[in-house]
Design goal:
D-Maltodextrin-Binding Protein, domain 2, 20 helices, 2 domains, alpha/beta, five-stranded mixed beta sheet
């Protein structure tokens, strides 16, 4: 049976979830219920605290120390955002699995996407299962990315692992450290495929460690600056400008901030969360490493150095926005629902600028249509004057384990390889908002139609492809990323709220704690 043709009848079902989908990008959070404007609640249709990267509070269960408890939202923001009132997420009926063909080899697949995106995953699995009868993929949904990697690590002792597992970007080192992974590079080389040559370069670089591609990218995203084109035109700002420096953006935010007759702010220039994923990106835009040596790309990272001048510049810029009364800080991102507060403020026109994953584009556009005031624009992430770096991808990839028989391992590779087909990636991207991992996907008519409908997406692609290869833009890889993100967001909160006067001191303290955790983790690895 022609596997490509089987995608077409299912596209309508895939697109049903598009309006409801709101995932973040990140580095890797799956989508949560959307924070809509004006009545519902992104990440990929406006989701709460689940943006493409970043992690919530469940620590991965390996030898590393437990992560600290989930932080609460900042209560001391100099400019507070209105409390979000979010309606219950719409009930989404799960897509049922098709029956297994007699005699086929079962492949177990764990994935952490939920809601509409989870249904799209299940639909793709059904498409694969319908396309042949040699293998049967049993898709087993997990609560989220954190729960997936936690369950994987706790299952190591008993050996009851899946054949394929979707793991977010920051779980890369932990997955390698399990020593239960079969690098996809081995399968690619055995088949003599030129697959890697057609992968989006920035995406392939992230999952390549020591020159070897360990997992196959599946859902990839990157951060952008969102802005209201209508508001920009209103105050005389260029609505087509793609690259903004910190100084330019501070000036723009000042012009964009509106007050009523009583002096109350009715439109903030910028709304933001204290988001470690964006912090990491800002280091990359300035060409600064997050970890030594070489962000863990050549040998294991043994020291976290995120407490550098690049980080200080980003925190100082955010503090400038707040202190000037033109920026709204809604608190920590990881482990909270503050992302929905940020998103609601933007789509309602209560703030003219925000920073989030490109995977939230569809949700922002769908929700601003309801209010009718905001025309969503996309630009590169802002950077200091003269910065020439780029962005790091977020999202998740598919890992093949050594679990099961040779037939199951062959089936695992067959399924994972199938997900990378340009037609599959075009359908996946068009249905969710994630980047296609294959360059060839942009030649598929479905993807061309999507770009025509959402031209803002092209700016994000341009930003990604303009990123020069380097260790900073490749992204850091180490085993305690989750705990480190929580430490960074705590430091950001201390400085932005004013409880710590010096940004460098707050970051130094976070780095000291994060390095203690990393050292302890590394000591358990042979």
């Amino acid at each position: 049976m022609n596997r490509v043709k089987t995608l077409r009848p299912l596209n309508a079902l895939l697109l049903i979830g598009l309006v409801m989908t709101l995932l973040a990008a990140c580095g890797g959070k799956p989508a949560a219920p959307a924070a809509t404007a004006p009545a519902t609640n992104p990440p990929a249709t406006v989701a709460p605290a689940t943006a493409v990267p970043a992690a919530t509070v469940a620590p991965a269960a390996t030898a590393a120390p437990a992560a600290t408890a989930a932080p609460t939202a900042s209560s001391a923001a100099a400019t507070s955002a209105p409390a979000a009132t979010s309606a219950p997420a719409p009930t989404i009926t799960p897509v049922p699995a098709i029956a297994q063909s007699a005699g086929s080899t079962k492949i177990t697949f764990w994935y952490g996407l939920t809601g509409a995106n989870g249904n799209i995953v299940r639909t793709l699995v059904n498409t694969y299962n319908s396309s042949q009868n040699t293998y049967y993929v049993e898709a087993i949904q997990q609560p989220d990315y954190d729960a997936t990697i936690t369950k994987f690590n706790t299952s190591l002792a008993g050996g009851d692992l899946p054949n394929v597992v979707q793991v977010y970007d920051i779980g890369t080192q932990r997955m390698i450290d399990t020593k239960r992974i079969l690098p996809v590079q081995n399968f690619i080389d055995k088949d003599g495929l030129k697959l890697v040559d057609d992968l989006e370069p920035a995406v392939a670089r992230y999952y390549t460690i020591g020159g070897k591609l360990y997992s196959l990218p599946f859902n990839s995203s990157a951060p952008v600056m969102y802005y209201d084109r209508n508001a920009f035109k209103e105050v005389g700002l260029d609505p087509d400008k793609k690259i903004w420096t910190y100084d330019e953006l501070l000036d723009a935010a000042t012009k964009l901030t509106k007050k009523d007759a009583d002096g109350k702010i009715i439109r903030s220039g910028v709304v933001f969360t204290l988001y470690s994923w964006i912090y990491e990106q800002e280091l990359a835009t300035q060409g600064a490493l997050f970890a030594d040596p070489t962000n863990g790309r050549e040998t294991r990272a043994n020291k976290l150095i995120f407490n550098n001048d690049a980080g200080v510049k980003w925190l100082s810029f955010l503090k400038q926005l707040v202190d000037a009364g033109v920026g709204t800080n809604v608190g920590r991102d990881s482990g909270t629902t503050n992302g929905s507060v940020r998103d609601s403020a933007f789509v309602k026109g209560e703030a003219a600028i925000t920073f989030n994953s490109i995977a939230s584009l569809r949700g922002y556009i769908n929700n601003t249509k309801a209010a009718g005031k905001v025309d969503v624009g996309v630009a590169y992430l802002p950077r200091p004057t003269g910065a020439k770096g780029g962005v790091i991808i977020g999202g998740a990839s598919l890992w093949i384990t050594d679990q099961g028989t040779p037939e199951q391992q062959a089936g695992a590779w067959d399924f994972v390889k199938w997900t990378s087909n340009p037609e599959v990636q075009a359908t996946w991207s068009s249905s969710t908002g994630y980047y296609p991992i294959r360059k060839a996907a942009y030649d598929v008519q479905e993807m061309k139609d999507t770009l025509a409908k959402y031209p803002q997406f092209s700016v994000a692609v341009e930003q990604l492809r303009a990123t020069e290869p380097s260790f900073p833009t490749q992204g850091a890889v180490f085993g305690t990323f989750l705990q480190t993100r929580l430490a960074i967001e705590a430091a950001m909160e201390q400085f932005i709220s004013g409880s710590t006067a010096d940004a460098k001191a707050a970051l130094d303290d976070a780095a000291s704690k994060a390095n203690d955790t990393l050292t302890e983790y590394n000591s358990t690895q042979q």
